[in-house]
Every structure is written in C-alpha cells, then in structure tokens.
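Protocol step 4 of 6: record predicted structures for both targets in the notebook before any analysis. Target 1:
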Amino acid sequence: MRPPRSGRIATAHRFAASLTAAPMLALLLLSACAPRSAGPVHPSPTPLAAVQTPSDSSSPDPTPTATPTPSHVFVIVMENRSYSQAITGRYTSQLAAQYGVATNYRGVSHPSLPNYLAMTSGTTWGITDDGFHNLPAGGLGAQLTEAGIEWHAYMEGMTGSCLRNGNGYALKHNPFAYYGSACPAQVVPFSQFSRDMAAGVPRFVWITPNMCHDGHDCSTAIADQWLAETVPTILASSAWQNNGVLFITWDEGEDSANSVLTLAIQPDPLNHSSAKPYNHYSLLAAIEDRFGLPRLGSAAQAEPMTDLLATKPPPRLRNGA
C-alpha cells in the first residue's frame, strides 16, 4: 500500500474541523478543500512478507523469467593415464579442443581406490590399497538420495552383486559399494544405460567402464574408441543439451606429478581451458555445488572449476525480433 500524502492528511483534518464551524466559514472551507501539490513521500520500510507474497492485484511482469531446467551431471571415470597419454586418443583430443579441459589437474593418491573415494566422499580414508574396506555409510550417493535427487551409477560388466568382481567389473572402481558395505539400488549394470537414456535420464549419472574399456587392461586407442561410442549418446540427450555437463576424468596418472586429463563438456563453454590447480576434490565440489549439496571432506576447501563451467550468455534479442 502506498503511504498517504501529507497534503491529503492536512486537508482531511481541516474538512473534519469545518463540520463544526459557523456558516461564515464556508468560503474558508471551500478554499481548504482545493487540491494542493504534495510534498516528498517518505514510505515506511516494506515488511518482508509483502516482498515474498505479492498481492493478487499486482501486475504480472511483462517478461517473466522462465524457471531454469534442472541440471543433469554425467561422470565417466577412466583409468591409469597421465594427461600426456590420455590426450593422444583421437576422440578424446577432439573433445578437449571443442569443450573445456583442465590442464593442471591431479589425482590425489595411488592406487585406484583412494582416488574413487576422494571423488565421492572428499577423503581417501587413509586407504593406500585396492582392497575392500568397510566404510561408514554416506558419500555422494547418500547425499543425492537424501536430497531426493535421482541418480544411477552404471557399472559395465557387473552381474549380480556389486560386491563381486568378474566379467571385466572391478569392485575397486565402484566407490558407492564401500559406504556401508552395501549395494545401493541405484548401482546398476551398464546394460541399462541406453534404456534409461531413452526413457528418463537420472539427474546424476556415473559411469564406470569395464577393465578394458577404461584403459586399465587395454590400450589408449581401445579406451578412446569406447568413449567415441558412448559419449555421443549423452551429448544427443536433452538432459545434456539443457544445462547439463559431462565430466570425463582419469583416476590416476603414471607420471611423478600424478597428472590426469579432466574434461568439462557442456553446451556453449565460455572457456576452453584452465591452468588452475584442480584435483578430484575439485570435481566433487563442482558436482555438489551443481546440486546445492553441502561439500564433503576436502571438497569444502577445493576450487570447484567455476571457470571451466562458465557458459556463454544467450544472444540478446533485438527490439521487434
């Protein structure tokens, strides 16, 4: 409600007083009721409730802002290549040229398992081997579930229990099974991936290729070819095209610096490379920030790769367009 003008208040008081005045004051009454120029308006502070709940009579914005499409995040984790080795893959190098690449990204430990744990819980838990460890329930998967965010972790080669190795599937490359020593319902065989991409894509998708396709047991060329066959399905989806992002990283490098290639693949990237020092905690921080989740462990202090996740602003429409 707009505050009353001081001139109108004065007029109202004079009009009320005139009701008891003698008839000889009629001329003065008429003069007092004449319109006056109002002084400056000093509105009182607007209550918070008035800002949050506009009245039904308020006019709609002629150009309302559309509700942003919920973001989808895809993650593919490859194996055992330093930056200089992974970038030699033909398809991988094409992705790096077209999208965003972190040129100063490091694994956090050796061997594989502690890196997978770092990506999903913000800590290595002091683990320095690839054996099975009974860790407390929690991690990124639990965060997503508690927040009501649909997710799936696709494990290529997994059949039956996620705690059983075989058919190219390695438990050490499935971090979600370690938290609470259980197989979450969201951890499924990779054979379901194509069906889910066609039917309804989860908000968070994690993909662990089998021990050959991730490059652990096979050549860089074979691993690169697997990416060339898998990634286009993601890039063709509306889930990726509408504010989505795909991260491809390698768990650990084979050089003294533990350098690994990490790609941030999203539509219309503003920056195509970043030399800032990033690691697996940065990746976790970027994922959690994307979903509005609290950061776990060392991700709380990590840089979340915001420069690589910046996108070009949409083109401005001309008047009359």
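Target 2:
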Amino acid sequence: MAVTPSPATASKTDPGFDPIKQDGKSPDDPRTGMPAGIFDREDASKKSERWQIRVRGLHKTFNKKHYVIRDLNLDIERGKTNIVIGGSGQGKSVLMKHLMGLIKPDKGHIYVDGVDCIPMNDVQLNELRKKFGMVFQYAALFDSMTIEENIIFPLIEHTKMPRAEMLDIMKKLVEKLEIQHLIAKFPAELSGGQRKRVGLARALVLKPQILLYDEPTTGLDPIQTKNVDDMIKHTAEEFHVTSVVISHDMASTFRIGDRISMLWAGQIMECGTPGEFIKSKFEFVREFVETSGAVDFEPLAPGEKPLSWPPK
C-alpha cells in the first residue's frame, strides 16, 4: 500500500535536483518520471508566446522559520486552463496571493508576460493587477447590492466611464453568461451555482487577461459542479483568457484541465498535460489522485518501483 510522506519529510529538498535544468537526454527524466523539459528551459524573463506566467525559485517563509513556498518553479500556459492541485496547507493559496502581487516572497521571480513583478512598487502592482480577475471560493458578493450593482462595482471603483456605458458592458456580459434574468435579485436569492456565475461576471467586467479561481466547485452538488466546470472551460474559450484554478476536485481537474500541477510541501511535485500527468511515477501523486476514483494512472512497468519525494 502506498505510504503518504509527512510534510516534514517531503519538504527536505535535494540540493542536486533542479527541475528546470533537466538534461533532456532521454524521453523521461529518471529523477522525476516526467517528460524531459517539462519546465521550459528558455530564459523566463523573456516574453513567451506560450507561457503567460513563469515562476522561478520562489521562496516564502512565515515567522522566519516556517517554509510555505520552497524553491517553487511553475509555468502557466497562455489561453489554457491551468489547474494547481494539492493537499490542504501545502501553499496553494499563498501561491495565488503571490501571483496577484498581494504578498512578497523572500526571494525568487514571477514573470508576467516577461516582466518580473517582484521588484514592482505599489503603483506598478496596481497597474499589473488590471490583467487579473479573481473568482472567489464563495463568490464574495455584496449582500446589500443587487446583482447588477455587484457586477458593475469594479467599473465604478476603477474607471470614470458613464453609468450608461457600464450598464451596456454589464448587459452584454450577463447575456453571454446566461444570467440576465438575475440582475434585479440580491445574492441571498441565488443558488450556489448562480452566485459563481455572478462572481465570474464581476471578475470579467474589467476585461482581464488572466482569471484566478479559488476552489470554484467547493460546496456544490455534482450537477452544479459540472455546470461550473463547463463555465470555466467556456469562459477560457469565449473570452480568450488564461485560467489558473486552485482545486481539490480531481474529477473537475481532469475534466477541464489543459495543464495540471501538483503542489506539495511548497514545491511543484509534478506537472504536465492530463495525459502526461497520469504517467507520473511519484508514489504520492498516484495515491493522491487515484484515491478520488476520478482517474487511473498508467501502470508501472513490471518490477519498476514508484518514486519517493524528493527525487534522489
């Protein structure tokens, strides 16, 4: 039976291992079990047509001793649905806050379209954040406002456009998301799935390039979950946005993910397309995903043993 590594054991890094500097001499890197070059080795500080966000060597500690993010490397593919999975307390929310520029790392780089956001001042960060939209776990709607007022709120806060123009943008958006019949209601009158759609509309109203979703299917029944999955996929295609989804839901992950990354003990343990991911040789990755019953991994070769983390 697979054994789950403890966080203390899993977080001990191997100083000789760098997933960015794979030698690429064989179809699979023997240290990771991943296709060689799973991290693009070109200069991350140069704007890439493929990668919109590139994280390199990110570290974050709290109280100067508790590592949450440890030498993390991650590529987010432009125009695709990128899903980050991992157990509770492994750093997913902290990673998302770094991507938004809400907290500063101890060291490392986050390149958005080739520009490192870590050295930016507050004015520069505010400008960068216009590229991002955030869909919160429970939508985070204002209970005292109608749905119409909730959706146009970012326009009121961040633009000087006439209200008629705001309402025109809102009308086109709610029609695309099929929630035009809800705009006179209040959040308390909506179902969980409807609140998610309204939260998405509010995130889209400023026309972001990148959408961040925090556990979008939490608390939803299977039918609502499927509807939210379809919404995320449709949004990426319809609005041509890059999606970054933090999730525990393995069925959703493999239903909509174009690229999956697993975060464990502050590091990206595995990443790739769903087809690449199910070839993982890491024992804990296989156990974590297969326990959900959502997908089966490709069997190991006869006599082949699964890899532990960190790789030797």
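Step 5 preliminary note on target 2. The first helix runs from residue 7 to 10. The longest strand covers residues 51-62.
Proceed to step 6 after PI sign-off.
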